[in-house]
Structure to design on (183 residues):
């Protein structure tokens, strides 16, 4: 998978700034401000929209004070997102407002770690190998891919009731197998 150009550019600026390049550091902070303003604006209700700039400044200050904690071997945008997310959560707590932000809104700023996905897929496949293939597919379609029971049942030429029973029995078998209790 090709690296995200924004991740690459921001990471290069961060690494240069950690190595003492003041111009790269100024450029990094300016670029981060451009990314953080829309990030916070999308998350704030209209009543709190004026707080976006305060959150940007708080986040930039946190980045400045914690820049030496950045692990050069990890994606920069993941580290950035963690700081921005914590600043936003702190703001929500201070304002006593409910957080209702769709997760997909984080996509433009989040780094993607393919290793974690590959390990999770391998582990999931290993777990689902403990039930019959059809049951495994029904569980995957409904519980992981988000398909309805009707859609999963139709894909296997089954009734919804039969699919529900198969899913229930498969999950029960997996729970018995992996729960660590009596088998």
């Amino acid at each position: 998978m090709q690296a995200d150009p924004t991740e690459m550019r921001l990471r290069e600026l961060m690494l240069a700034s950690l190595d003492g390049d003041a111009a790269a550091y100024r450029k990094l902070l300016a670029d981060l401000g451009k990314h953080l303003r829309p990030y916070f604006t999308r998350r704030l209700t209209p009543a709190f929209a004026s707080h976006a700039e305060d959150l940007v400044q708080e986040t930039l200050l946190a980045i400045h004070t914690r820049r030496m904690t950045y692990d050069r071997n990890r994606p920069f945008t993941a580290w950035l997102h963690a700081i921005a997310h914590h600043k936003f959560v702190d703001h929500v707590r201070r304002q006593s407002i409910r957080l209702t932000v769709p997760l997909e809104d984080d996509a433009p700023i989040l780094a993607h770690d393919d290793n974690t996905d590959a390990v999770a897929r391998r582990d999931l496949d290993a777990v689902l190998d403990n039930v019959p293939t059809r049951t495994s597919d029904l569980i995957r379609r409904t519980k992981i891919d988000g398909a309805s029971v009707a859609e999963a049942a139709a894909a296997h030429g089954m009734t919804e009731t039969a699919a529900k029973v198969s899913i229930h029995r498969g999950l029960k078998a997996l729970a018995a197998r992996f729960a660590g209790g009596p088998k």
